[in-house]
Design brief:
Blueprint: E1 2-4, E2 14-18, H1 29-37, E3 41-44, H2 61-75, E4 80-85, H3 87-98, E5 103-109, H4 118-134, H5 136-147, H6 150-155, H7 157-168, H8 172-183, H9 189-192, E6 199-204, H10 212-221, E7 226-230, H11 237-240, H12 242-255
Parallel strand pairs: 2-3, 2-4, 4-5, 5-6, 6-7
Antiparallel strand pairs: 1-3
């Protein structure tokens, strides 16, 4: 778990950053210091088993949401802005469904609300099998080409390699468990219409995993939500264009 502490007053100064699959909370490094320097209290937790945290076989998005609520309680916070990217977005929606009173606002990044189709579910099971047979390198080989805008992938090898390293140091077993939790997540489409807290949706314009069209569909269902598309950014939009991502996120936080 990565923690940066700022000095913002009030509950709108609390931020949880929930990471994507199969990277870890390290992906939020470009956001942690800028948010803290702007006065926000920021924590970026990791899912079960990642970065040598205890594994939890059979965990669900609801399980993780409950542990996030325990974390917020332990910190003495009354609420927090929940920022989730991709898998983190699934966790953010699960958290809101269980704890709307603890959610100061939502920031849903490069994610989707609908559950997997049978075809997508089958693909995820094949992914799990391949990772267990070939190791974490297989997850990196499959995911990395889909994470970044084409230009970033071709011209920023240090970022690509750092992201690859974040994947391959996770165990195949814990990668597989996270993928199972993703595949078995609840459909949150109807939940979107019930969201009443301030909500920002962010999506990379070159995201081919959860496309801008997917983001626009979520925006249309969440009352009063705001949609921001980031040019020259893929699925990990916070890494592709960190300065632009940070500016959008900070503008949202300051509006609360």
């Amino acid at each position: 778990m990565l923690t940066f502490t700022g000095a913002a007053g009030g509950e709108t100064g609390n931020v949880l950053l929930l990471h994507a699959f199969p990277v870890s909370s390290q992906m939020w490094e470009p956001q942690l210091a800028p948010l803290a320097e702007s006065g926000y209290r920021v924590i970026a937790p990791v899912v079960y088993g990642f970065e040598s945290t205890p594994s939890r076989p059979g965990w669900s998005m609801d399980d993780y949401a409950r542990d996030l609520a325990r974390l917020i309680e332990a910190l003495g916070w009354k609420s927090a802005t929940i920022v989730g990217l991709s898998m983190g977005g699934y966790q953010a929606m699960a958290f809101y469904r269980l704890y709307p009173e603890l959610t100061a606002s939502l920031v849903l990044c490069d994610t989707r609300a609908n559950a997997d189709t049978p075809e997508a579910f089958s693909v995820r099971q094949e992914f799990r099998k391949a990772v267990m047979e070939k190791g974490a390198e297989e997850a990196a080989a499959r995911m990395l080409p889909n994470f970044f805008a084409k230009e970033t992938y071709e011209t920023n090898p240090s970022l690509v390699e750092k992201t690859r390293a974040s994947i391959v140091r996770q165990s195949p077993e814990d990668i597989s468990e996270a993928m199972r939790a993703i595949a078995e997540r609840e459909d949150s489409t109807e939940l979107l219409t019930e969201i009443t807290c301030p909500t920002l949706i962010i999506c990379g314009m070159e995201d081919t995993v959860t496309t801008p069209e997917t983001a626009a569909g979520m925006h249309a269902l969440i009352p009063g939500s705001k949609l921001e598309l980031i040019p020259e950014a893929g699925h990990l939009s916070n890494l592709d264009q960190p300065a632009m991502f940070n500016g959008i996120l900070l503008e949202h936080l300051r509006s609360l």
